[in-house]
Batch of 4 targets.
Target 1
Amino acid sequence: MLQLLHIQNYAIIDALEIPWREGLSIITGETGAGKSILMGALSLILGERADSGVVFNKDKKCVVEAVFKVSGKTVVRSFLEENDLEVQDEVVIRREIGSNGKSRAFINDTPVTLQQLQELTVMLVDLHRQFDTLSIGSSGFQLAVIDAMAASSRELAAYQKVFRRWQDNQKELLKLKEQQSRDSRELEFNRFLFQELEEVNLKEGDLEQLEAELELLTNAESIKTALVQINQQLREQDQPVIQVIRQLVQQLQPFTAQQKDLGELVERLHSVQLELADLADEADRWSDKISYDGERVMAVEERLNIGNRLLKKHGARTTAELLAIQVELSEKLQSVVALDERLNQLEDEVKLNFDELKAAGKKLSALRTAQATPLMKQVNQLLHRVGMPNASIKVTITPVEPALMGMDNVDFLFDANKSGQFAPLRKVASGGELSRLMLCIKSLVAGKVDLPTLIFDEIDTGISGEASRQVGLIMKEMAAARQLICITHQPQIAGRADHHLFVYKQEKAGQIQTRIRSLSESERIRAIAEMLGGEQPSAAAMENAREMIQSP
């Protein structure tokens, strides 16, 4: 419920603070007094974009602040928690506009975006202006009315859950099919590349070992010659090195007893002799192993050529990189197989989802269809009350392809003159007819769902007399369970108010400003009498006004 509206430095309002109460609050005032300005300020609270032109005094900012009582509204509490906003029994919404047009929005003193503001305020206020009657012709609005009257929120939620799952699976299926199309173009090429690598049967370090082996085979003769020379120099020359060192050891050996240091020298010479002998043996063994093998050279060169061609082809530098590419190709080929399996599985899931969707949609459609006739009957009865005895609506529900809101197209058709010729509302109903029809429909919906604060801005245009009285009665009935605010020029509606606010202009310091005040009962009688009979109402007008206020 809206508890307080504070407006500062907006249009021709210097400062206003308007308290609000439960029930039916009526706002009246002469044309141009500023009633539309109040609605403009309230629209800022609801998230409309700001215009620097509304700033009254360019030396300071414009501030519009509203306080809502939200205790017991779980959807509002959930919104505040989800957006990390302070949770209280009151919600304070503030808009600030600078002279440069820059605007800021706050919820409970925390800065928020306009989108967040709009998401919250739609739970708090339903503002209906005269031009908003166009929305009644939209299929979305008409579908929402049917669902509200049918109390089908649970069935709609169940349908939407299945629909989103079906839609998500369809999107994934389409995505996988596109991937399959791309993969199929690459499949044969990847399979060829993989088989080419698999046939070579490379092992870790293969090409590097082959390079080393080829280097050895290519230089086999030179290496063998060098090894033979080592063995010859050490053992087979006229004076082999090993034999020379052995003789030196023998010459020094007899003197080791007299000179201890010579014994160490002899030991060292003997160690050198043994090491050289071992070197000669090792060179001999290597010499026996190494030999030029032309066939092996050709085999190694052929395998290396294949390996180098693959390295160049894949932009690799080592055997390890080629093996990694082979693994990657294998995974791609396996993923194609897995993709086919997932596609088959997903196609089955989509088919199952669609069967579930049709079942849920059929259940939802049944509820909507069952409500069509009762809704027509109730709306037509209300149309008669508001001065449209010859008007009637027809509700048609036709099947359509599955969508988020169901598998039905709802259309409200209208006949203003009992002609039997029904046509879409937006094509045949006048503004005044749409306004009254909207009121009738909202009054019915209000009895089914927890609507927020309802605000009607001059939707009574084009009616008078008994029709106005009936509109007032309908509003009074609606206000019994919720806060309802109405700007009106009709005395029959004003007479039904629980609270009557009067908007007027006042000159202050040479400037015209909009003001608003709450009327006492005697002031209400005077104001309604003036609406009936002009600025100088007659005694009859005063008595008529008194009866309007006091009549049940």
Note: The domain at 1-124+484-519 is CATH 3.40.50.300 (Rossmann fold).
Target 2
Amino acid sequence: MRFGVLGPLEVWTADGDPVGVAETKVRALLADLLVHRGRVVSADRLAEDLWGGRRPANPLASLQTKVSRLRRVLGDLVVSRPPGYVLEVEPEAVDLGRFEALVLRAGQADNARARAGLLTEALALWRGPAFADFADEEFTRAAIERAGEQRLTALEALAEARLELGEHPDLADLVAEHPLRERLRAAHIRALYRAGRQSEAIDSYEDLRTRLAEDLGLDPSPALLALHSAILTQDPALAAPAAPRTNLPVPVTELVGRAAAVTEVRDLLAVRRLVTLTGPGGVGKTRLAVEVATRLVGSFSGGVWIAELAGRARDRDDVVEAIATVLGVRDDATTSPLPLLDRLVESLRSKRILLVLDNCEHVVEPVASLVELLLRTAPGLRVLATSQESIGIAGETQWPVPSLEEASAATLFTARAAEAGARLDASSEREVAELCRRLDGIPLALELAATRVRVLGVRELLARLDDRFRLLASGHRGAPPRQQTLRAMIDWSWELLTEPERVVLRRLAVHAGGCTLEAAEAVCGTEILDQLTRLVERSLVVVQDGPRYRLLESVAAYCVERLADADELDLVRQRHLDYYTDLAERAEPHLRGAGQPTWVRRLNQENANLRAALDHGGNRRLCDALGWYWFLSGRISEAKRSLEAASPLGPRSRAWLAGMSVLSGPTDPLLYKDVSDPLGQWFVGFALYRSGGDLAAGERLVGLALKGFTESGDEWGVAAALSVRASQAMVRGDLDRVRSDGERAEAVFRELGDQWGLLQTVYPLAALAEITGDYALAERRNREGLRVAEDLELWSEAADRLTGLGRLALLSGDLRSAQELHERARKLAARQSYRAGEIHAEIGLALGARRLGDLDTAERHLRAVYEWNRHSAFEPGNALILAELGFVAELRGDADSALSLHTKGLAVARHLGDPRAVALAKEGLAGAHSLTGDHDYAARLLAEATAARTEAGAPLPPAERADVDRITARLRAAEHTD
């Protein structure tokens, strides 16, 4: 995260999205920790700063509450460390720290232009007075004064740097605000004099001299006296320095998102003589090179010069002529008999020059030979080149220019849209982010798109992006032809390729999200390594970790058109489908066993390609092979959509579709009536249990599957069926079966090395341990399950394990941890669209709220769960919910509602045949009858509940006796009263 204190307090994510810190005291706590960046602040100091003389009764407890709320926003950045707390962030994660670092670097810079650039960047971080919304607080006073002084010092240094560059900064307002600052006044006097306003410069000096004498009893410093004397004598040393020699264009727009790149490339040029900026067309190589070179004007006595090679240079003579022209080396035999190249070499031999060679990719070989010669003969020469591929000579440092990051891309697009007359508000943020992603963060593409926003709006622009070459067919008239349309930008690169390179590039376009070398060879041809290497070198193919090879989306769209032009589109798509069908079939048996994590990750990497294969004619074989992967990776909606679109489906795919439909919501039983193979029966039965569907139908299907797996000797299938049967037995309250089936399944899955399978045994066995009061074992199982779920990136399973841990925290009395764990589980499940997981977590939140005495919150959660269970026809879940609602009514003294709710709950429990649920309902009825005065009946109900629990082998653990103890106490009190 990043933090802003140079203005009102702000917090942003790494991508630049704002992070809300709403509560005033929590914001004050964050401000206090930021005042002491990286240093521990004692709890007493923080309490004093937050509350002063109006401390709460227990200030340390109140402080801990505020810290807890701040941690919900910032996470582990807020660290408890005796004797208090510290905010652990990198110095430059805070804008004040970034400001200080830039000012320090400016002080170390070896030329005025670099100093001016760094100081300008530093001062741009200020959004207002430091800690603006805490200016009246005592704990910020010293920090505000210190930061304000640093800002003034930076402004003075910037003024001096601009004077050194021959500029005339306007400092009148700043001097009026700080009339006694001698360094500032000296810069102001010098600027006035150089602007030809000598009398005003003298008046400014006299004003300072008078103020110093009257206010402080002091005389001007010797430096000011010397400056005054120099003005009176019109000393030539006061004249502005000569303008630096350069032909660099002056940019008309701000460079966005490249601050770090400018610094890195500039630093490279300090130690390397040849730096080449590489990258695809439109990524901003030229703009970055110009910005870096501009910062270095003044560092080279011979000047900073740019030679544009695109459109004019075709061979070495053209390159020599282009460089000679910008350096003023005349091609005139009357002035020298030497060839132009020799004259160029001689002109550079003793000079200190930075030469920018722009757009070298079409003449890379002549550029390479020439640059090698010039660097060898001119020791003071530095070369900054831009090219889609490296120059390829010894001593070269290649610096790939990346696409803009999401936040910077959005900033650039929004700024250029505004320049084109369009105003975008916050409602467009999501569409802008998607547009930037679709255009790969390429600045030129974003700028072309921005010209269309005023007419189309962002949403319509995004909707038309599939026809991007027609859409982005006009740009700024002053731009080079290759930069005026998106197609022209890619045409420029395409024309530089050989025919074999074009063949490979266009065939790569059928891949989505990149591909491996194996996949590329299967689709493009087996002998492609040389061509692929050249395409990577030319920045047309991006290499990712793996390695994987990817085309930018615009390049891919262009190449699909080229595929169609070559009449290869259908052929190449069929090769793509064949390869990924084979891959899915190779992966499928490994998804059950020790190879599961490896193959899930492999298919995750290829998910976009698998979707593309399905979209372009995917077959029954591919659907059959992908079903289990879709489930393991949490792609339920994608699976259902793909299976419904495929035709015709075989028995296996029909079973996958039935199970996925059940997991997606209530489903017509006819959909899974005819599932016949054991794997399909098991999957549908598992889905019915997991989604809270028809329990009896699920038990029947799992039983059939277990029989089929056993007959065929399928160990994995047997363990899978047993794990579901153990969970179903938990719903029925059959604890003996829970133990026997769960432990058998666990043993087989452990032997097979199937992590997903082990995860399925966690719930029934952890729940069994919880029921029997072994909370340590229950927690150990849940934590192991959470680790496995996170390792496999099975986030819905992780949500359930967090809920399990939350339940144990509740039972141990740690209500705050219970609330945090249940809330984490709820949010995680919501992100996965795992509604059943949200419901499980919401039950935990309801249980915690009731134990905290917040009956209204408890009831709100319980009613929501009850409605979901009713809508899903999940009757087993309502045994607990009706009992909890009944206890809420009883605690409010509402005997009639309590009786009604517990009576309904008892009917559900008896229908299920779960003795623990029956006991819970009877305990609730005892509480209701204790309110009506029917104490004997209430006591008898409690005794029956205890007997039922004992007979089931699950007596009530001490941590769950709160309701029974409360009702028992009420009965005893009534007995004494009687």
Note: The two ends are 65 Å apart (CA to CA).
Target 3
Amino acid sequence: MLAAQILVQAVSWPLVAMLAWPGPRARASAVAVVGVVVLVGSNALLATDATGESGLARVCAAVIQCAVAVVFAVYPSGRPVPAWIGWVAGAGIAVQVTNLAAGFRLEAQPWWSWQYVLTWSLLLWGQLSRYRSRADARERQQVRWVLATFLTMVAGFLVMTIVTVDGLVAEEATEPAAMLLLTLPGVGLSLGLLVPTSANLDRVLRWVLAIGGWSLLVSTTIALSAAAAAGLSAAGTRWVVAGCAAAVGAAGWRAAGRLAERVVYGRRRDPLGALTDLDGMLAAHHDATVVPQTVVRVIAQALGVERVEIRAGDALLAAEGPAPDGPVTDFPVVYRGERVATVGVAPRRGEQTLTAADVAVVARVCAYAGPALQGARALVELVESRARTVLAREEERKRLRAYLHDDLAPTFSGLGLSAAALEQFALAGDARAIAVARRLADELATATRQLREVAYDLRPPALDDRGLVAALSDRIVVPGSTPQVRLTARLDDARLPAAVEAAAFRIVSEAVMNVRRHAAARSCTVDLRAAGDRLEFAVADDGVGVGPAVTPGVGVRSMRERAAELGGDLTLSRGPDGGTIVAGWLPLTTATTATTATAMTTVTTEATP
């Protein structure tokens, strides 16, 4: 008992000092601060009397009841919220004042203990109502401290009631714990005024509510079953009470947990619960294009907020709820260092900001939704890429047809006429045959040039004539240019597949072109190497680099599409020392790799200023 008394004094008076000094400058009303000071100080004085029978102890108990009524009615804003709680507080104070005036004779009445239960229950319900209809996030955090500590005290007393039934634990042994429990509301009120945002108490509050509700259910069951079994023997009464308590306790724990979750979170679940909902909804849909709407719906249902939207750049992918009037908090959805989308969440009606628990839920959902959104985006891009491929193929066919019909066809028709004229002149011994032969030679040269231009558009001839490394060197290594490009290649002696050469040539050329246009780099390194059954490439520069959540442009999408067409991959990232790294790989066919020579040659080409 002495240790508990010392602990109460060591906690109470520093709290009073802190409230008296920084408390008036905090965002709380003077009435709330004074009420908490009186409550904490009275608890400290009450703890000096171990029996609680002295006149000072009885006066302190009355003052504590009045202080609790005032503080619970106006904490923390200074206004009674809800309005009816002011009448409850007034009635509680009137009862205590009447008892003092009557010389504590009201305490002998049978209803005296029940008025505590009724008054404190209504005051607690008022704080719960304030918690559910809070004005802003800070006030809700302040009320959390009150509810968490007060309900811990109630749950503690209920547990002590259960363990002292039928002498299981002596009541005297619980007196130090009861003394410490009585100080908890004052501690919670003080912390709510001084440091309301120092801890996230949602989980604590949920567990306290669950344990408190379960303890109340079990203790009520014990009292009712003991009364019902009063006619049995002592042993029979114990068995009846134990059986009823065990049955009700086992069945009631789950219900108490659900009720606590409903009170603390409302419609909002904890992060893991929201992720479970998201996983179930994603698994129920086979259409990847509905993923953005699914993510939005999960967040809206989990938080109960007014508005949730998801955007990709300036494009709105999905939204839930009306357009917001107030601020919207943005959360990035990042996958492999790239911002896939942005989730915007507006607070609930009557709130100005999201709570810390809200932010935790949205952040977890965004992290989990990143791969799903990336997959949905990749599917959309794949469909669009296929459509563009079909359109490009038809446009290329149209262009080739027009070229063959409008250019080459007349050219070959002219060649045919010239050949026929040459034959006639030659048979007749006409001297004009020489001029016709010269014109025919010129027309053949023109036709040959036109055919070469068509072939070059279809595939750069340098790839077939000299190979990938030489073609790239001619294309990207320009002496005296900035940035200075250095090409290093470790490839097999055998030629690469034509599709791989063409894709690597165009991807690396596009990457180097992006460096020249956007990176402001001084040097650029291109590395090519054959690794097993695939060709790996990397283009690194020392320029400005990409941001932590880069949105790819047309060039990057084009490079990724070229790699994906062959079953490869391409990534865009920031280098360890700055700059940008474009890295990827392309698969090599089995037939090609089987005939590859084991000897490796190293080719290094760089521009010299």
Note: Strands lie at 307-312, 315-320, 329-335, 338-346, 484-492, 523-531, 534-541, 569-574, 580-587, 600-606.
Target 4
Amino acid sequence: MFKALTLQTVCALFFVSMHAHAQTQEPHKSLYAIERQVITIHVRADGTFHEKIESVTRVKSPAAIELVSQDDVDFYSDRQTVEVLEAFTELPSGERIPVAADAIRVVDEERSEGAAMFTSRKTQVVIFPKINVGARAHSTVLRKTHTPLFPRQFMFRRSLGTSVEYGQLEFNISHDPAIHILADSRGFEGGRLSDSPNGEVRYRYTYSQAAIQHAESGQVSASDFGPYLHLSTFVSPLAVGQVYEQSAAPKTAVTMQVQKLADEITFGIHDPKAQAAALYHWVSKEIRYVAIFLGSGGVVPNPADQVIRNRYGDCKDKTTLLIALLAAKGIEASTAMINSGSAYEMPRLGSISPFNHVITYIPQWDLYLDPTAELAPFGILPISVMDKPTVLTALNRLGRTPKLDALTNWIKSLTHIQIQADGQMTGTVYSEYAGYADYSARLSFMDHEGEYKERLAQSNLSANRQSGEGHYTPSDARDLDTPFTNRGSFTLDPVANFPGPGALSVPVGLTPSFINRLSFNRPKERVLFPFVCRSYRYEETYEVEFPSEAKITRIPADAAFDESGLLYQSTYRLRGQVLTVQRVVQAQRPSMVCQPNDYQVIRKLHAVVQRDLRSQIFYD
């Protein structure tokens, strides 16, 4: 069910494909409705606060029964407490059934994808009885924060999506006049009220949403375009960055241990940028990622010496160690606060959300590094942190990570295919990668052994709607000093009858075949929300040799498309029994956020690609 007012944390910090997003759905009736939710927040002068959350949720469809039957309230046990004041189910008849005492329990935070995690984050679970269509789940929960994340500071940010029906959503906020809190909102009604008789500052905000729209796969975070309410003692994200830096800077001290390690890692390397690369590779490989959410571990990194001794740490720890090692070689660097999800906008006021990650910035080369990305070559970032605003804490200024560029993010492949007299095909492929495509390929082949090795080629053949067998011979995915390449060999079952007459489309074998798969995925009619889009270039060359007995009578016509930064070209050339096919698809975007009207160009491109890939080679 709805999780009330959680503070986002992802990396133990305090804080697309072309059309994969195209799962748009028409507006429809909601499965459940939050008929009434009133959140009352009072903040004391020292930044401690309490929240009372009163909720009434009605089930409108059988599909929502499981969803509404449980309410989860997250909290951090080392600085917060949660108490369920009241919880009951109201049946359509009006009968009230209280939640049993043993149906209210605290559970630990689940691990994320099996990653090691130490956290004080827990969930207060309320399980409602006899939930069915027409029933209402009532709950009143009190959450108290006895230790603020930052001393004498307060931050609260609530963003709303489009997929939940709200009847009455109301926030009542009050605070001691001794603490200065700023307010910012979008889409809410209300604002500051008159002060209470005892001088407390008061606000009230309301919101309702009757018509809903499902979130679209690949859309940017709703916080970038949807309604939000933001309260903070920090005037800007830079102010949060300065508080973080005050705590983090001492941890980057160049101690004897740090200096010794830096000198060992860079022994024999004299170029500063090459030294930076060596230090980055060492931290990303040798310091195991472990998420830490305990006490101040959520907002303050451990000292570099301790990270060296432990050989593990979270994103803050790995960044802190890298900054210290760089400093030992005279290279200035800064922590960069960033969002590693789908948020691309910077909030006006200081906040934890959407910042959930930190990486490293080297101003000398205007270079960002993410030491948690073990297989990312020097200077290459994961897609999740590209084209994102940053707070450069040591420099006290804002920045932005680079966006994808088609000139530096590409895959090139050359495929040879020999068609036998009986129609069976054998072939080889050689692929090269650059930029994010290089990093992505390394992730795919990092564990290329055993059962996974056997399955990978087969699954890729199946994904391209081919039957046969094959295997890959990739380069070393962990050798970050050498561009990643991959070779493959395969045998395909006949897709046409030989001898002819007959016709077949160009087989792809074990080519990375982004273009082929692009044609499989039909875009929807439209999208409603801004979506994540990428810049890339994929070049595929095929040399298809027909048996000497076959007479090729017709080959496909060339195809071309070029509009609004999207390009597609294909050429077909026949020399003797060998048909050479070259296909290029390229997207060059001004940013990684596209608007709904950009989507229609994608639909046009898809139609051209699909038509071209349907074309066939005729033979006798």
Note: The domain at 410-619 is CATH 2.60.120.1130 (Jelly Rolls).
